[in-house]
Design brief:
alpha/beta, Rossmann fold, 7-stranded mixed sheet, 12 helices
Length: about 260
């Protein structure tokens, strides 16, 4: 019998030990709402339904969502939403299905929109306090990278301004069906925004980071000049922030970038 090809390119986790480890990484959720992103065939959903106070599983696939509804429809604490996570207001989900506490998020993120989902979660960071996410290993390395490393960039800085990042473990392609062509890493993000601590506002600072990392091969000062800041203003701000004139953005800590942002402002 020919197996149905997943319509959205999903790779379903089948490694039972990995499933247990991922759910365990969320901690005790017996008094929490858990929001699951992309439950697929329900491998993680089954354990979450047993351990969480309530569960909202958000699945876009038009075949998998009804299958999950049949599988879990008899449990009043489990809610299957057939919709796009990128169009979902997690704050509203938490208000509707939670009990006042912040939710926790878990998901095996589709490789082709991982960054989009991460940024969407940042936009709704008020709704949850932790996220355990499985992503492509290379994306995980970028998210967790430290300043000065080759992988450090805009995604690293943006996520790390929002949360503490932990790389928990990596899974080989054999843990999935069908097997992807890449390894996958499980990340834990513990929400701990640094905007107040560093004296910056989120949206303006993210715009500044975007300009700073615009071209990784160019110096930070060159990127800022290309973004419209005068050479004199950039030089004065760099000196005020204690940064070398030839430094690149990927070599700068968040503290240094915040100091430069404030000096330019």
């Amino acid at each position: 019998m020919k197996k149905r090809k997943p319509s959205l390119g999903q790779n379903f986790l089948t490694d039972q030990r990995a499933i247990l480890r991922i759910v365990d990484a969320l901690g005790d959720v017996s008094d929490r709402l858990v929001i699951e992103v992309g439950p697929g065939r329900g491998a993680l959903t089954q354990l979450l339904a047993q351990g969480a106070k309530s569960l909202v599983a958000i699945e876009l696939d038009r075949t998998l969502a009804p299958f999950l509804q049949i599988q879990f429809g008899g449990d009043p604490a489990v809610h299957i939403l057939r919709q796009d996570i990128l169009a979902t207001n997690l704050g509203e989900v938490t208000r509707q299905y939670g009990d006042g506490k912040k939710a926790r998020v878990l998901g095996n993120l589709p490789y082709y929109i991982t960054s989009d989902i991460l940024l969407h979660l940042l936009d709704h960071g008020h709704a949850f306090d932790m996220a355990v996410l499985m992503v492509q290993r290379e994306v995980a390395q970028r998210v967790a990278a430290q300043p000065g490393s080759r992988e450090y960039g805009m995604l690293s800085a943006t996520v790390q301004m929002f949360a503490r990042v932990e790389e928990l473990f990596t899974l080989s392609p054999e843990a999935f069906q069908p097997a992807p062509s890449v390894h996958s890493t499980v990340l834990r993000l513990t929400v701990a925004p640094r905007y107040d601590e560093l004296g910056v506002e989120r949206k303006p600072f993210e715009d500044f980071l975007r300009k700073s990392f615009a071209q990784k091969r160019k110096t930070l000062s060159r990127n800022l000049r290309n973004a419209g800041f005068s050479a004199e203003r950039v030089a004065a701000a760099m000196e005020s922030a204690g940064l070398d004139a030839n430094v690149r953005a990927e070599a700068c800590s968040l503290e240094a970038m915040a100091a430069l942002f404030r000096a330019l402002a």
